[in-house]
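My current task is to audit a protein record that another person submitted. Alongside the sequence sits a line of tokens, each denoting a local backbone shape. Please read both lines and tell me whether the tokens look consistent with the sequence. Do not assume that whoever made the record got everything right. Thanks in advance; the entry in question is below.
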Amino acid sequence: MSDLTSHFVVAPDAAFDAHLGHEFLTPTTSRLTLRAAHLGSDGTVRSGVYAAVAESLASTGTAVEVLPQGFFPSGLSNATHVVGDAREGVLEAVARCRARGELEWLWDVEIGPPGGAPTAIAAVAIAVRPMRAKKKVFEDDRSG
């Protein structure tokens, strides 16, 4: 994904995925080694962790195709369903693009233990919009 870094506003090592421990294997496959911060009070992976992984894979899968063409991806909707329990170990995620429209792409994402049944399934819609000029973020500009 290094050819995409010229389009990033936040460096990959400072982005949310890095803090989550989400490791990309390809733009549409990844893994997450579970740790206590991923778990809810019942000891299973929080649904938001699954949703974040699904959103990130769908956005990245779209980005590799549309950024070189002058467009950018933006999350539009995310319906993530937890269908099993995970408490420890590694989760693997695979995103498959099901439809590519002019303004949005639809992805299915399955997340679960390696070689096992999915513990979460997501449908994620990603908007595709024309690129705008980069803006500096997180700067307090009071000069004007």
Summary: Strands lie at 22-26, 29-33, 71-82, 90-100, 104-112, 120-130. The chain has a mean pLDDT of 90. The chain is about 15% helix and 35% strand.
